[in-house]
Amino acid sequence: MPNAGRTARTLSVVTALGLVATISAQAHLVEDFGVRRGAPAHISLSTGFNGFVGAGIKKIQVDGVQMDAFCIDPFTMALRSSPGYKFVPLTKAPESPFTLRASEATEISDLWAMFYNPGMKENKAAGLQLAIWEIVGGDDFSVIGKDYGASLMLAALRSYSGPGAGLIALTGPGQDYVVLTPPGQGDESTPTPRPHSTPTPTPHSTATPHSTPTPTPSTHSTPTSTPTPTSTPCPTRPPGPPPTPPPGPTPPPHSVPDGGSTFPLFAFAIMALLAINKIGYLVPAFTRVQTRR
Fold this sequence. Notes:
- Helix 2 (102-115) packs antiparallel against helix 3 and helix 3 crosses helix 4 (150-156).
- It is rod-shaped, with a radius of gyration of 64 Å.
- It has helices at 2-26, 102-115, 122-137, 150-156, 262-292, and strands spanning 28-45, 50-62, 65-71, 81-88, 141-143, 167-171, 177-180.
- The chain is an alpha+beta fold and 293 residues long.
- It is built from five helices and seven strands, in the order αββββααβαββα.
């Protein structure tokens, strides 16, 4: 168990480090040092801005690495230093509603291939920046006054048939930029998940269930459970005094003489009859004597 706990903690640390590495690989610090080669230009935006800005090659540093860049987001203020930038294709920058279409991304790549040079002249650098803004902003962007040859650059696109430059965008909290793709750098945008079609399951033939033979009842008789006797309630005497037993013959005595004592009883009965007859004879005589007196 201690080994399992140690392994779990190790995996948690490795996972956390992997997440930190992933986040750091997709979050870059961008420092904007302004236009290093260019000229002031008067522009007007549909958002209400109307004034002079610096147009030309911008000097930026990405995680301390210096790069030449052009702004592709004239509608957002530049930040001096900001973390949270990602490298994404041109078709994923800038933010909506000014996100570039594929044809517009191709035009910017061709303009870069045709006119960009690290040591290009100030006015030409300003013209290239204004031409890029014209592509991004469309009818929401306009140049007032001198455009430093931006219109001529855009017209030259019609006859260009060479390869475009390998460009990539930097998108983040501040302005978005276009730069040459650093060696080995890929798309860091979050891919949109594609809906996967759910395959329709192939119906399988259902096997016919085999008939299960009915088990033959056992020859042993199943013992019948004896029902539990239910106690019968006794009759309850009605309330009131106990009833008086009805008059009836006196019950015979408990001690009855046996057959050996029958003769004495018979003799006694004869003597009783003789006494009764004698008494009955004396009573009439006693009555006659009283009458005579």
